[in-house]
Amino acid sequence: MVIVEDNESVHAPPPRRMSLARRETLMGLAFLSPWLIGLVVFTALPIVASLVLSFTDFNLLHPADFRFIGLDNYTRMWNELMNDGAAGKSLGVTARFALMSVPVTIVLALGVALLVNRKLLAGKPVFRTLFFMPVLIPLVASTIVWQGFLNGSTGWLGQILRSFGLPSPDWFNDPSWALPGLVLLGTWGIGNMTLIFLAGLQGVPTELYEAVKIDGGGPWARFRHVTLPMISPVLFYNILISIIGVSQYFTQAYVLDPGSNGNPGGSTYFYNLNLYKEGWSYNQMGFASALAWLMMLIVVVAALVLFRTSARWVFYAGGDR
Amino acid sequence: MTGNALSLPLARSGRRRSPRARAIRLGISRLGVTLFTASMAMIFLLPLVYMLLTSFKDSTQMTALNAPLWPATQQIYTAADGQTYTLYEVPTASGVQGLALEKPGRVTSTFIDPKTGQEVEWQGNWRGLSPVWSLTVSFDNFSTVLDVLNFPMLLRNTLVVSVLGTIGAVSSAVLVAFGFARFRIPGKNGLFLVLIMTIMLPFQVTLIPQYIAFLQIGWVGTLLPLIVPTFFANAYNVFLLRQYFLTLPRELDEAAQMDGASPLRILWSVIIPQAWPAIIAVSLFHFFFSWNDFFVPLIYLSGHADLFTMTVGLQAFSATYARAGSGTLTQTAALLAMLLPVAIFFVAQRAFMRGVVISGVEK
């Protein structure tokens, strides 16, 4: 402390002339500077650069001589989207996966949250930890585990189903079952959502449940008229996060087919697999940038639609937002 | 605690039941709910059990018919003359016996009783019999994987990236969060909005120019692109820490300021000692993130096997060995790759899960 005071008195005179507010602003900006520099260098400039790149034929093999080719990348993308080319196929796979995976993970996460929130449940912290734990497993490792678990002949799921006389698909080797297999793998990622739902559930005032009880409502009425509206903000947040998650889906599909062809039969040819291939296998960074911008646009539109509809179904208890 | 909370509504319901009957009913529902949840958790984690048991198996067991789920080998009987025969579970008049098959036949087969060494004739098709399996825990997969995968090297690279990255991420996020939480800056709210927006930004739009820039300065094929950007404050971490800093009372800072402490000094000796839960959560987030990260190391390290991090090395290993049908080896490699993060999680799970909630709920 004493040393600091001494320093202050030595260096004090010049800054004193600055107004206090100005001094605070400069000091604050100094603290923000790591982020501000990062914002410019790693976010703002790259965004502008990727937009510019998307109008060029930039190729990694000869980075010096690229030309502006106008909308060529975008017309090519449009053709691929319309005629079921690589971009169209990969967008289709991603959309199909989103339609399966988002509802399944949301419902499962909410179900688990309701389960571990039960007053009657003994050992709650243990169960919370267990349902959360797979989130910490590196995706490459969990994909390998599920690849083995779902293997048609030696995997356990098939063996279990067969022992009950049920048929079992050869998940990751069957084009029509590979995406459902990835949905199953995705259930290991519900931990974050579950915890956020759980926090939402714990914020529901118990008086509301009492009120439903007095009105003679059963468990379904309690869920439908109290729980669901009260947790709608966290539901909204979780849907948004899972849509963003699907838009960034890559690792699992790459581990399934390191040739990044989305095998079996192109059924797991996700959007980012195509982007990776265009950019890093074919070195066409210009076209890959256009692909990146399309995905960005899709996510922004999806988020806007979600925000627009949210007025109708998201209920903020405080009413101040 | 839960017992107390429950006794209230039950007492109010006013049904005439002896307290004893009520306690029994409560106990039964508690047992039911707990057993149901436990079985759900077991199904949920069954693939992990599969992985664990498979990594101790010999690869021949994977394709053998009627093999048990646990690691086992077929029992072999070695006769006096050095010949070896496989033991089968044979139903005989005196119950099922483990007998060594000497001469297989479709109608009758000759077996040797390993206890007596006597030959036994048996009526029936030997193909209907299942071999005798005995529990055998094999560590061969582990030594193979540690060798082929070069596990120590992957561990070292991953630790370099994740430890340096965590230091960078935490120190920069603490500084920036302090700036957002404690300084009056014109346009600060606008900046904070920009910060929130960058959390939502898809990584694809910044990735390609970053890659090209790192290529130009010769950093592709080094660990630097994985470490250096962490020193420029990740928006998500800043957001989480700022939320936490705002909950800390200002009186202490102000008192320190009166004493003439510089802002850096206030941050170091007033804010940080109070903010350990959030700082630990952010450190864990970043540590797990960089342990798990795949796409970025894949593009920057491709072709430099000596720099591979755990996930990239594991994927390369799986690409080679999954095709060769060595399910046991890939499961062992996956087990080794998740060992450290899972262990750290179990030690620090409380702080970690609280961090998830802070960041998700408090917008």
Gyration radius over CA of chain A? 26 Å
Q: Sheet bearing the most strands of chain B, described?
A: 5 strands, antiparallel
Main beta sheet strand tally, sense and closure of chain A: none
What percentage of residues of chain A falls in helices of 4 or more residues? 55-70%
User: What is the structural class of chain A?
Assistant: mainly alpha
| Subunit organisation of the chains | heterodimer
- First-last Cα distance of chain B: 30 Å
Tally of separate helices of chain B: 15
- Extract low-pLDDT stretches of chain B: 1-14
Mean pLDDT across residues of chain A: 89
Task: Please describe the structure with a list of short key phrases separated by commas or semicolons.
heterodimer; A: 321 residues; mainly alpha; globular; disordered N terminus; B: 363 residues; alpha+beta; elongated
Summarize the structure.
The complex is a heterodimer of chains A (321) and B (363). Chain A is an all-alpha fold and 321 residues long. Helix content of chain A is 69%, strand content 0%.
Explain what you see:
The complex is a heterodimer of chains A (321) and B (363). Chain A contains 16 helices and no strands. Chain A is an all-alpha fold and 321 residues long. The longest helix of chain A is centred in the first third of the chain and has 34 residues. The N terminus of chain A is likely disordered. In chain B, the strands form two sheets. A five-stranded antiparallel sheet of chain B has the order 2-3-4-5-6, with no helix packed on it. Chain B has a two-stranded antiparallel sheet with strand order 1-7. In chain B, a hairpin with a 4-residue loop joins strand 4 and strand 5. At the A-B interface, helix 1, helix 3, helix 5, helix 6 and helix 7 of A face helix 1, helix 2, helix 5, helix 6 and helix 7 of B.
